[in-house]
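subagent[fold] <- orchestrator: predict structure for attached chain, return tokens only, no commentary.
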Amino acid sequence: MNLKDVPWPLLRQLAGPDKLGRGMAVKSAGSQRLRARTAESDKVVKSICPYCAVGCGQNVYVQDEKVTQIEGDPDSPVSRGRLCPKGSASLQLTTGDSRQYQVLYRRPGGTGWESLDLDTAMDMIADRVIDARRKGWQEEYQGRRTRRTMGFASLGGATLDNEENYLIKKLFTALGAVQIENQARI
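subagent[fold] -> orchestrator:
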């Protein structure tokens, strides 16, 4: 009788060369057919966990242009393949039923949300930044040249990593803002 035909792993372990039970002796016929969820993926995209500002690396597995699995990135020097419970559940951010796929806008004084296309929303944001900069501009303050705006500020949150914070700081400084802050706990 072939050892593979022996139904009980313990007997295969005792009778065969795998005495410590770390190889074929402990594998059942069903486990031979199992494949990883990620084996069918078309590509793997490196990403960063969006939750806390630690910046744990993630491998995002994509099949047919859809995200199928998100796991910790073992190549990441930050997390070495580990993710917290929130990071482990981040697949729901892309595939969850409650994910919004359009821009929602509530007019001043309004009580309901309305959908806007992305181009309209981006134009509204740009117009408001320009208007706030113009209205809050200070060429000088108390006789000293300042060339700044007090019309807006920036407060970043936990989903921003160092590179994004650097670019945001550069952008808002170029626009003349002086109140630029990032708080990872928000």
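orchestrator: received. Logging for downstream: The beta strands are 43-48, 57-63, 66-72, 103-105, 114-116, 137-141, 144-149, 154-156, 180-182. The mean pLDDT is 84.
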